[in-house]
Amino acid sequence: MWRDLAPIGRNSESGGYRRFAWTPADTDCRAWFKDQAESRGLTYELDRNGNQWAWLGDPATGNAVVTGSHLDSVPDGGAFDGPLGVVSSFAALDELRRRGAEFTRPLALTNFGDEEGARFGLACVGSRLTAGRLTPEQAAQLRDGDGVSLPQAMERAGHDPEAIGPDPERLARIGAFVELHVEQGRALDLSGDAVGIASAIWPHGRWRFDFRGEANHAGTTRLVDRRDPMLSYAQTVLAARREAELAGAVATFGKISVEPNGVNAIPSLVRGWLDSRAADQQSLDTVVTAVEKAAREYADAHGIDLETVRESFTPVVEFDHALRDELGRILGTDDQLTVPVLGTGAGHDAGILADSVPTAMLFVRNPTGVSHSPAEHAAEDDCLAGVSALADVLEGLACR
Ligand code: HGY
Ligand code: MN
Ligand code: MN
Q1: Ligand 1, closest atom to CA 117?
Q2: CA of 362: how far to CAs of 10, 23, 87, 358, in Å?
Q3: Distance between CA 19 and CA 30 in Å, rounded?
Q4: What pLDDT digit, counting tens, does each position of 24-58 carry?
Q5: What is the mean pLDDT of residues 147-155?
Q6: Which residues have C-beta atoms less than 6 Å from ligand 1?
Q7: Which of 184, 250, 284, 366 to mutate to test the pocket of ligand 1 (most atoms within 8 A of CB)?
């Protein structure tokens, strides 16, 4: 499975993945998922929001156990973020069949569309639409860097944009959702464990800062005559780092777009995106408020117009305690009493669904902690330990 998936959307220069929502690479990933589902005799379904489901048993029975993740990536993302959870779901089912497990609840394997929000800027679009946390009207407002709207992109990829919307009936059939994901940090490497259980997801969001100045000639415009938005942007980036350090949070300006983006032209517009996250809402609010205040002061000092827009936000997620503890019981063994339980600053579809159904997450050790990079890696033995743990969890939940 891994070998079949690996070449899809991989950039040969960077070695990273460019699997953006509703692009041909995404379509090829979806085709891979459908093949894997049908080759196992599972009932394949594409839901109204473009999420893929592979069912064993009759969904109408309800109380289904569902597992899966996403196949889309950030620009030049790694091979594991998302795909490890999807491949492990199929591999765990294969393992359960080898064990002769008898399912007493329906089982579904899923690929949630557009989890990274790399193209349209909003994280977890597929699961947000299904959970009713993004309306079709809001979705229609989303544009990519070329001005293509989400509905247009869906249409071009052959998916009916008129169909999108909340899917409460589908969610009502789910008794538990478990997402396996490569850890995006080093907690398991430091504790020496191959697998861990998630406790919570930090609140996190994305804010766009538009600094508008005055285009002019880089060579002939006196410094005193300039309204250069790049200066306010640069000062704001440093302020974000300072405020995050003070609050024990994280803040990143990882994406920027400059108009006209010419070497010898003072920009008219510098657009920067802030990603900020913190263990609690108050710390996150403190950081973002302080960064916005600093940005405004710098903009005012240079005669720059500033507009800030919150483009994506996910409040703190506390995973279902009963399900978390159930996973702990299933995975805990006599010699290793407890499987580590750890929080994360990374968002996931499980975090979006947590409001609608009991959700839990399993993490697989990432020896360097590096993610959202072609260098992201997990050792094969740890990936196999993840598959075995997921199989144990699915057996414990769906095969009583
Ligand atoms: O950004 C995140 O936390 C996730 O990878 N979408
Ligand atoms: Mn990611
Ligand atoms: Mn992910």
Answers
A1: 6
A2: 26, 29, 14, 14
A3: 11
A4: 999 999 999 999 999 999 999 999 999 999 999 99
A5: 98
A6: 115-116, 123, 346-347
A7: 184
